[in-house]
């Protein structure tokens, strides 16, 4: 199942979001707030699909936090609710200058 950003936004607007303890701890360590994650989904686009993720299909969203900084959000979807897996600020060691394209692993 390929996820659609408009569907994620609709679910987000309805407040059907689950935050795992792990995701909450990780975003807090990174100085990211829940409003940042929601803003990223509302302003962003899906840049990677993970249809075989367990237990639900997931995707990587590229959007903006409330301060206008680029942020990545990994979210799963079970058909009725969004599951926030993690969020982070993309870095040039893993992504190209566009912060969207993953760099190829160095051999």
What's this model, at a glance?
This protein is α+β, with helices and mostly antiparallel strands and about 110 residues long. It has helices at about 5-15, 20-30, 35-45, and strands at about 15-20, 45-50, 60-65, 70-75, 80-90. It is about 25% helix and about 30% strand.
Account of the protein in words:
- This protein has 3 helices and 5 strands.
- By secondary structure, it is of the alpha+beta class.
- It has one domain.
- Strands 1-5-4-3-2 form a 5-stranded mixed β-sheet.
- A hairpin with a 7-residue loop joins strand 2 and strand 3.
- The N and C termini lie far apart (32 Å).
- The mean pLDDT is 93.
Q: How would you summarize the topology of this molecule?
A:
Layout: H1 5-13, E1 17-19, H2 21-29, H3 34-43, E2 45-50, E3 58-64, E4 70-77, E5 82-88
Parallel strand pairs: 1-5
Antiparallel strand pairs: 2-3, 3-4, 4-5
Distinctive features:
107 residues, alpha+beta, single chain, 5-stranded mixed β-sheet
The parts where pLDDT drops under 50 for at least 5 residues are none
In this structure, how is the largest beta sheet organized? 5 strands, mixed
Q: Helical proportion?
A: 25-40%
Described by the principal axes of the CA atoms, the overall outline is globular
Tally of extended strands? 5
Spatial sequence of strands, sheet with the most strands: 1-5-4-3-2
Range of strand content? 25-35%
Integer count of domains: 1
What value does the average pLDDT take? 93
């Amino acid at each position: 199942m390929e996820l659609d950003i408009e569907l994620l936004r609709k679910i987000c607007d309805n407040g059907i979001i689950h935050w795992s303890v792990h995701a909450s701890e990780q975003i807090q360590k990174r100085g990211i707030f829940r409003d940042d994650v929601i803003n990223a989904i509302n302003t962003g686009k899906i840049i990677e699909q993970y249809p075989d993720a367990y237990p639900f299909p997931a995707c990587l969203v590229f959007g903006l936090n409330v301060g206008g900084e680029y942020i990545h959000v990994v979210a799963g979807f079970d058909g009725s609710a969004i599951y926030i897996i993690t969020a982070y600020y993309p870095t040039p060691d893993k992504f190209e200058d566009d912060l969207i394209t993953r760099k190829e692993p160095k051999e």
